[in-house]
Amino acid sequence: MRIPPGIHHGQAVRVAGEGEPGADGGPRGDLHVVVAVNEHHLFTREDDHLILHMPVSFTQLALGAKVQVPSLNGKVDLTIKPGAQHGEICRLPGQGLPNLRSGRRGT
Predict the structure, then answer these.
(1) What pLDDT, in 10s, does the model give residues 18-32?
(2) Which residues, 6+ apart, have CB-to-CB distance to 52 below 8 Å?
(3) Which CATH number fits domain 39-107: 3.40.30.10, 2.60.130.10, 2.60.260.20, 1.10.357.10?
(4) Is 90 exposed, middle or buried (0-12, 13-18, 19+ CB in 10 A)?
(5) How far apart are CA 53 and CA 64, in angstroms?
(6) For the residues 29-46, what does the mean pLDDT come to?
(7) Pick from 66, 7, 78, 72: which is nearest to 42 by CA?
């Protein structure tokens, strides 16, 4: 059984022909499997976006810096702009989860 990438908690996947046999010898029905997605130890999820809370120093915020952050595909470089504020969100386009309909990845 194949679970598509980017599936959300509680969504169902249909497996054709793997359900109960039909009445009076009819063909088997479809099996619907409800998916439970576990929480990740680093990332939280908002729709197709992944969120990572990462501490940085005051110097990195004030002067700017290039830091490595974990992603689903390994570490990637993130540029913190000079003068960044506490709690500011830095985005990495295309590093989130793929949307089931469009295939476009979140940030």
Answers:
(1) 999 988 888 999 999
(2) 42, 43, 69, 70
(3) 2.60.260.20
(4) middle
(5) 17
(6) 94
(7) 72
The rounded Cα 13 to chain-centroid distance in angstroms is: 17
pLDDT in tens, 50-76: 999 999 999 999 999 999 999 988 999
In the chain, what are the domain boundaries?
1-38, 39-107
Q: What is the C-alpha to C-alpha distance for residues 27 and 92, in angstroms, rounded to an integer?
A: 48
- Mean pLDDT for all residues in the chain: 92
pLDDT band at 45 (very low <50, low <70, confident <90, very high): very high
Alpha-carbon distance of 63 to 10, in angstroms, equals 44
